[in-house]
């Protein structure tokens, strides 16, 4: 759900893998845009410098930031879960408003596109001025109004560091999921991922949380593989990943083939072939 770069020493490798996954499994992965998928932000927070350091020029940075312009801003899972990076906008009342945005551009400094990647949920009611200097804060009343109008169960978003990896707010109508463990190599936070099972399509709004599982306390290697791969293959038949992964959760058998393919692309030895 955004911010694939400016998050450590390996932003370039992370976003390269994501694009490779999208090309290889285009119908199984949706890459949403975050506020760091922009030219201005990446020149300040590290991705631009990383590209210069690893490639000697800014060409790769330009290719990626041009690609970022085409990333979708939002996604809806099973007509019930609204996914985005930041939060809601006072300029967007319906899903159609979000779909009709002219997103193929640099993230502007204000307006609905900016709000979707910069806004945050808040304990106060109504709209508020964001301390970030972009986007808004929005209260539970705003969340409930938006989900009611659009027939949604809850909003899933990222954008904010939460120490336990995830945090429910607004009477469990908003969940923040943060998947970068030990953020900036110093925060000591846990990371989380969410699994949504197939039966979510037929469940009611009252029972939807029973069909969404949050996993926490992953290390860097676990999140690297699990958050990018596990959710694509989370249906039966199941198996347990090898001890090399040290994860202890069930994933689809096709994951083994997928990991082999990924290792082949990156010319590394696979721990899954033994």
Automatic annotation (TrEMBL):
Membrane-spanning residues: 214-233
UniProt keywords, alphabetically: Hydrolase, Manganese, Membrane, Metal-binding, Transmembrane, Transmembrane helix
Listed EC numbers: 3.1.3.16
Single GO molecular function: protein serine/threonine phosphatase activity
InterPro entries documented for this protein: Calcineurin-like_PHP, Metallo-depent_PP-like, PPA2-like, Ser/Thr-sp_prot-phosphatase
SMART domains: PP2Ac
Top-level taxon of the source organism: Eukaryota
Record SUPFAM superfamilies: Metallo-dependent phosphatases
Every Serine/threonine specific protein phosphatases domain range: 32-37
Chemical reaction(s) catalysed: O-phospho-L-threonyl-[protein] + H2O = L-threonyl-[protein] + phosphate
Cross-referenced PANTHER family: SERINE/THREONINE-PROTEIN PHOSPHATASE PP2A-RELATED
Family membership: Belongs to the PPP phosphatase family.
Protein name, per record: Serine/threonine-protein phosphatase
